[in-house]
Amino acid sequence: MVGLSVGEKHFIQGGIAQDLRSDGRKRLTYRPIYVETGVIPQAHGSARIRLGATDVIASVKAELGKPSALQPDKGKIAIYVDCSPTAAPMFEGRGGEELSTELSVALQRCLLGGKSGSGSGIDPSSLVIVEGKVCWDLYIDGLVISSDGNLLDALGAAIKAALSNTGIPKVNVASETSGDEQPEVNISDEEFLQFDTSGIPVIVTLTKVGRHYIVDATSEEESQISSAISISINRKGHICGLTKRGGAGLDPSIILDMISVAKHVSEQLINKLDSEIAAAEANEEES
Amino acid sequence: MRGLQLPLNQTQRIRLQRALEKLHSLSSKANSDASVTVADTIPVNYDDAFLKGHGTTDLNGELVATVCGVVERVNKLVYVRALRARYKPEVGDIVVGRVVEVAQKRWRLEINFSQDAVLMLSSMNMPDGIQRRRTALDELNMRSIFEENDVVCAEVRNFHHDGSVQLQARSQKYGKLEKGQLLIIDPYLVKKSKQHFHYLEQFGIDLILGRNGFIWVGEHVEARDGMIVDQANNSEQSTVEKDQAYTPLEMRQNICRIANAVRVLSTLGFNVDADLIIETAELSSSLNIDIHDMLGSEFHVLVAEREAERRSLMTKRKR
Fold first, then answer.
1. Which structural domains are found in chain A, ordered by start?
2. Contact A146, A139 (CB under 8 A)
């Protein structure tokens, strides 16, 4: 991260206070979002999202596995994020690990709900094949290629796009088997099941700079934050997850205010994202 | 052009393609075989004696390029100039840099070169304006002039024996830059011209085109007064003032418009000079395009078409 001089920091704060940021955006405007789906053919679903200079890829891979003993009627989902050294030299080797873990945990909280799987954006019960014996294990991987602020929102959007691009192969279970035997399953190459992604929430990160909140901060603006809240909201307007970053304390009334602002912003974002994903899928089918 | 990462719909793509082809045809008449990629043979008359310069090598008796770029010939020297390389300083260039280190009697600045540039304390005017020998006290007070991460404008003075660059900031127009934003573009887009400092009167904005690809767009500052008597008091006053006085909204809009014009031109790969920037900014305000929409695909296509028209008019006039 390049440092900023005092004059430049003051200029950025002034811009945010006057509702005119360095690239002409208003406080609550997102940068143009560019979606591409199907970028990784070997994965079951993948998407690449560009948000200004921030560039992330998400991929979904499904494998057959055994459900856990505690929840035999649910499949398993794992989210993991990796920061590539092409994004910043400091990510080389183990440098990006702290940021990767933070992003992975935040995404898990926002998208997967509680330990029992309830309240999850992706319904784990749809992943089970034979209760107690065979289920789909979903591995969702995110890769940060280029970082210019607002990684969490971009990754959330990329995962949503990747899941709508995912086709899980249809499984035919062989005839009834008894007891502890593993049932035989035939994985079909032809038929695929699509996920219903209308329930998947998007993540909106609100960054507080001075007395105002901005949405979609660039890395220059992120260097100025006092605190940030990432809220994941679904289409119905319900909050699916909430994370607060930054050291400064926030008055509870400010948090409630930020939540209502995020709810307002998320409606436009969900609509925009859905239309971009549909356009990207249409493009992919053409090519 | 580098793969434009803009979401273009079908008509926009066609229009952009057409504009770029027109520009290509206009320019390539001058130097059609000048651009080479790695392992291309360079067309040379092997009977004449010539010198092999940077970016070339002798392979099986043929002169072959080792970098992607443009072939340049200077008398008997043939070399290949790479386009997207780091900035190559020349003496007398105006550059904008960021301070990375405050060292003994010098500042180290980052200027997008392979090494950090050095600005000696003796190459800098003292705040009180008196020409005198720099004492140990001056050395201890270096931070009051420039600190880490400050943006500074200076001129290339000479090269050190080890290849690093020395800068000087003796005139009033050089020095610390505040109240604005720094843009980073590719160095090859800023060509050497007579004027690198531009005061855009109609906007009230300073525009500094550093040859290293760092462009400064900010509020206009009058040439600094040399006599600042009470340093400590002044800095206190200025911080208090700063808390209250943000840049006025209209000037900020102009700054953002110019900055976005520079971003658009650099994405399209056009040479960035003051006239073109002003024209692009005026085009956007005449079409009532919102400042943020300047970074959208439609405006990029419009700018490309305008530039193609302008250049074809220029070549027609030349004939």
1. 6-286 (3.30.230.70)
2. no
Q: Which pair of tokens denotes residue B64?
A: 């072959």
Interface test mutation site (partner B, options A8, A21, A275, max chain B beta carbons within 10 A): A8
With a cut of 70, say whether residue B229 has pLDDT above it. Answer: no
pTM to 2 decimals? 0.84
How is A38-59 classified by DSSP, letter by letter? Answer: ---TTSSEEEEEEETTEEEEEE
Which residue from B62, B28, B15, B57 is spatially nearest to B43, judged by alpha carbons?
Answer: B62
> A22 contacts in B (CB within 8 Å)?
181, 256, 259
Range list of β-strands (E), chain A:
33-37, 45-51, 54-65, 76-83, 128-130, 134-146, 167-173, 185-194, 202-209, 212-215, 227-233, 239-245
Residues A261 and A265: their CA atoms lie apart, in Å, by 6
Exposure of A186 by Cβ count < 10 A (0-12 exposed, 13-18 middle, 19+ buried)? exposed
- Check if A287 contacts B (Cβ < 8 Å): no
Nearest CA in chain B to A283: B9
Cβ of B179 within 8 Å of Cβ of A10? The answer is: yes
For the stretch A44-87, pLDDT in tens is 889 999 988 889 999 999 888 888 888 777 888 889 999 988 88
Q: Chain A within 8 Å of B222 (Cβ-Cβ)?
A: no
The nearest CA of chain A is from the CA of B115 a distance in Å of 17
Phi first, then psi, for residue A80 (nearest 5°) are -140, 140
Across the interface, do A5 and B7 touch by the CB < 8 Å criterion? no
Quote the CA–CA distance of A252 and A283 in Å, as a whole number. Answer: 45
Neighbours of A251 (CB within 10 A): 8
